Amino acid sequence: MVRVGMVSLGCPKNQVDAERMLYLLRNDGYELVSDAALSDVVIINTCGFIESAKKEAIETILEFCTLKQEGRIKAVIITGCLAERYKDEILKEIPEVDAVVGIGSNEKICGIIKDVCKGEVITSFGSKESLCFDDKRIISTPGSFAFIKIAEGCDNCCTYCAIPSIRGKFRSREIDDIVKEAENIAAQGFTELVVVAQDTTRYGEDIYGEPKLAELLNRLCEVDGLKWIRTLYMYPERITDELISTIANQEKLVKYLDIPIQHCNSEILKRMNRKGNKQGLVDLIERIRSRIPDVVLRTTILTGFPGETDEQFEELCEFVRNVRLERLGCFAYSQEEGTAAAEFPNQIEEDIKERRCEIIYDIQMRISDEFNQSLLGDELEVVVEGFDRYAECFFGRSYMDAPDIDGKVFFTSKNRLSLGEYVKVKVNDILDYDLLGEQI
Fold first, then answer.
1. pLDDT tens, 275-332?
2. Which of 16, 55, 372, 423 measures 20 to 30 Å from 25, CA to CA?
3. Contacts of 356 (CB under 8 A, 6+ apart)
4. Residue 84 φ/ψ, nearest 5 degrees
């Protein structure tokens, strides 16, 4: 029996693809091993979105190619976004690789492993639209949460982003199909559903003629066994009053909105091919906060976009100071070949981009610290994710924290707690972005 290990890098959407391949492999009789270094064949499901992700993927590939040269594993297969984006370069630059597989060929993974085990070198790139949306997968997320992908691809064509060329055009799944998968996930004991797509707020436009995210979320709230439903990647210009009302009124929908805005300056947003402006963003944030009590807002910011002036960056800093979002991630602009922005004039030097990113984080750290200070003495519902043997306490997340993105809640308890259990924790201290407390 051939032992197969999977290393999945990048975003939750990529992880869902990896879980689908794991299901196919197990169904075909392969032995799945959790430690990829102990496998016969390793699949590296890569991210190729920005430079830092590409570096991580290449370092991981080289690490396993070294294990292959040492005779510890037999074959290395590359899948995912890096494979799709650099199909011609990978085998040329890293000849130790045995197969390069595009996202449209994921369904062929079992046969590809058979071929590489015979000593063949394989390249396989099916149509991007062939990427399967089947609900059959092996969920690999730890604890009580699982991702569910409601759409694939992207039509937004932001000038800095390579995703449309990697993943293809935006395409939604049918509502009934998504609900069926959610029921299967809940039946396996998962209580938190994390809804993902490149742009969740665009869900349904292509197959129903209008956005249907609110309707989908209402249907998901009917699934027995689910306690928390969290939606990521909501584009600000598509957040409607109907969607805000749905999140406000449905108990299972956590009061947490992930809204990537990238910038606030109108000129930069226009050159990014993003909709809206600063005042529109301010109005949206005020509208959400007024209608959803205790809502937590998260965003991502991009610094050093081509042509960003000192004045435009200061405008961004002032925006961050004023709107005081509870959660914020910041990235220095990555000049990606094949994107429109890569050819823009006035590219900014790396050290300036990075320094601007650090300044944003410094501002946000103070905001986050003040927000966490405001939680002292509060009682939060926390899902148990594990026990830290060094700190001798449990840890978990509240509704305010998306898995693998935000902070943790560390807490003591006199009880024996189970993974996935929901408990009440009183907050009595903070540590950087994390909260400290005790179970009530």
1. 999 999 999 999 999 999 999 999 999 999 999 999 999 999 999 999 999 999 999 9
2. 55
3. 303, 304, 308, 313, 332
4. -65, -40
The domain 3-130 having CATH identifier 3.40.50.12160: the answer here is: yes
- Amino acid identity of residue 383, one-letter, is V
Q: Where are the domains of the chain?
A: 3-130, 379-439
Beta bridge partners of 77: 43, 99
Q: Do β-strands 75-80 and 41-46 pair in parallel, antiparallel, or remain unpaired?
A: parallel
Domain 379-439, CATH among 3.90.1860.10, 2.40.50.140, 3.30.420.40, 3.40.50.720:
2.40.50.140
Contact 396, 408 (CB under 8 A): yes
* Cut 0.85: pTM above it: yes
DSSP letters, 265-293, are -HHHHHHTT----HHHHHHHHHHHHHHST
What's the pLDDT tens digit per position in 20-71? 999 999 999 999 999 999 999 999 999 988 888 899 999 999 999 999 999 9
Q: Pick from 423, 431, 315, 286: which is nearest to 365 by CA?
A: 431
